Amino acid sequence: MSFNRPPNGVYYLRSAVELRAFVNLLKKFKGYATTLITLYINAERPIPDVVNLLRSEWSTAANIKDKTTRTHVQDTLERIINNLKGEAKAPENGMAVFAGFHMINQGNYEWVYYVVIPPQPINTFKYICDTAFHTELLEDQLHAGVVYGIVVIERGEAVIALLKGGQWEVVKSVEFFVPGKHHAGGQSANRFKRQTEHLAEAFYKMVAEEANKIFLQIPTLKGIIVAGPGPTKEDFLEEGGLDYRLKDKILAIVPACCANEYGVMEAIRNAQEQLKESEYVKAKEVMDKVMYYAVKKSEYLVYGRERALKALEMGIADIIVIAEELGEDAVLEVIMKAEEKGIKVEVVPRGVEESKTLMQAFGGYVALLSTPVWVLEQQLSIAEAAQR
């Protein structure tokens, strides 16, 4: 077995959406007594050492009194050992093995074997026998994903937002009266200017104080985008008192229309290059590609469940795009079939606005093809004729 070219049963998960679907799948399996084996292997752990440990566990399992438990544990260990033999080390992110006999009912068992390569590194080694698979380390990755902070500020108004995984949310709005820069009647220009600057400075400090409270509590904060119309965003950074640790995390200062949800979306759009590791931005880029194909290269695109899966089955799809909104069963079906064919899958999260387009215009499924669509149409016609 080579982890660089995964066989059936080895799944490289590239996003939190895929990881979440797999965790939910693994939670459905139950073993007879402590017969389901969970094995987490970090990249630094030599596979031969793991194999030796499993052989030792196989010998220990011979002492289990219950015959069914003993047989299931030893059989599972043998199969894992046979699959790991010959490998020097795990992939860069480590790997998690989930194997055993799922108990459908008493005396009726189904063999289950999954090797998961997660999107983030596994940093420990664990071997567990239990009645259920242990998914805690994978679930920790769901809660520890990369987070970006966004501050959109204009004169007297600001919003602070967080971009995590496939969605963003405004977590704080700040409003403060700062008069415009025009001269007020009856006041001296210099006095009015000083008052305005003092109020603006107080507002910047208020926004910075809120940003400090929110962002400094996030250990996985990857970076911050500061946005807004005109020079207000630069004035905020100069005068607001943003914590020096946060200033070091500023990735970009970009224009945005206004301090509201539209401004947040514009900030994300204008900082796509700096946010390219975000699942949200990756999903938007995928949908931009889908729309480009739909308009410019429509002969290399099919959509809808039947046609997309047929393209996958025939191996003529370069990429399968599927909406998370279809549910974990649909997502897992595509991931597993695509892994067998070596075809890339992109899952568009619910939180991305383009997810609605994917659902409404394409039925939630799109296949970008390596050959023109007439090849698929020809195969479908042959299949339909054979059924008549």
From TrEMBL:
Known InterPro entries for this protein?
A: eFR1_2_sf, eRF1_1_sf, eRF1_2, eRF1_3, eRF1_Pelota-like_N, Peptide_chain-rel_aRF1, Peptide_chain-rel_eRF1/aRF1, Ribosomal_eL30-like_sf
Where the protein is mainly located, per its record? Answer: cytoplasm
Q: Which GO terms describe its cellular component?
A: cytoplasm
Q: Which GO terms describe its molecular function?
A: translation release factor activity, codon specific
Domain eRF1/Pelota-like N-terminal, which positions?
Answer: 10-143
Classification via Pfam families: eRF1_1, eRF1_2, eRF1_3
Q: Where in the cell is it found?
A: Cytoplasm
Q: Which UniProt keywords apply?
A: Cytoplasm, Protein biosynthesis
Assembly and interaction partners? Heterodimer of two subunits, one of which binds GTP.
Task: Give the family from UniProt.
Answer: Belongs to the eukaryotic release factor 1 family.
Write out the function statement from the record: Directs the termination of nascent peptide synthesis (translation) in response to the termination codons UAA, UAG and UGA.
Q: What name does UniProt use for this protein?
A: Peptide chain release factor subunit 1
